[in-house]
């Protein structure tokens, strides 16, 4: 049998002859970080601990690990946990907008690899991954649901259950941009339902909602409320980005 070094030689020779391009700036990657060049890597605003264990927003460095943010202490969310990779700004925002509106579906594996550390603990709970759904009219216009692409890739990569139709959006809603939490929640309330044929899969399940961006959390709040109404034991979310600032 060939050693791993020898078996990997053809790919390494190809990388030398045709260096992979950075998926952000399209310049040479130099293999420093998978998919992203060193310059672009430094522009990504990762969310680091300490973070709120419930909503995942960044906390001030002096806050003890495990402490909740003031927002979650004041208004208890329906979801049990949330995790995001980046703050929604700078290069991370540009990548997500390209993924969401610019047909940049090739970014799916790149985002998925950054989720790996967040999924390690989740896998022990036998989770069910469900994408935050789009209304069929929105899918017709956009041609794909970026949350579904990501959820499917993550579920397949980590060997967990994927339930693409576990939550449906049966009512079209106006755009959420520019709205605060109260307005967003009023806008989204009653827009989701769990189809009858999936309700037994939801009951007592550990559900992980997958989306691209969490802004105020209103969509996650309503999604979790509906899923728990139909018996989900735990509901959390994974999102590429969240609109956040350091709070205590």
Features:
about 250 residues; alpha/beta; Rossmann fold; 2 domains; five-stranded parallel β-sheet; two-stranded antiparallel ribbon; globular
- The name of the CATH architecture of the largest domain is 3-Layer(aba) Sandwich
**Which percent range fits the helix content?**
25-40%
Tally of DSSP β-strands: 7
Order of strands, main sheet, comes to: 1-7-6-2-3
- Output the CATH class name of the largest domain: Alpha Beta
CATH topology category name of the largest domain: Rossmann fold
Distance between the termini: 56 Å
Characterise this structure:
The protein has 248 residues and is an alpha/beta fold. It folds into 2 domains: 1-43, no CATH class; 44-242, Rossmann fold (3-Layer(aba) Sandwich). 38% of the residues lie in helices and 14% in strands. It has 11 helices and 7 strands. The strands form 2 sheets. Strands 1-7-6-2-3 form a 5-stranded parallel beta sheet. A two-stranded antiparallel sheet has the order 4-5. α6 packs across α8 and α9 (181-188) packs across α11. The longest helix is centred in the middle third of the chain and has 15 residues, at 108-122. It is globular. The mean pLDDT is 86.
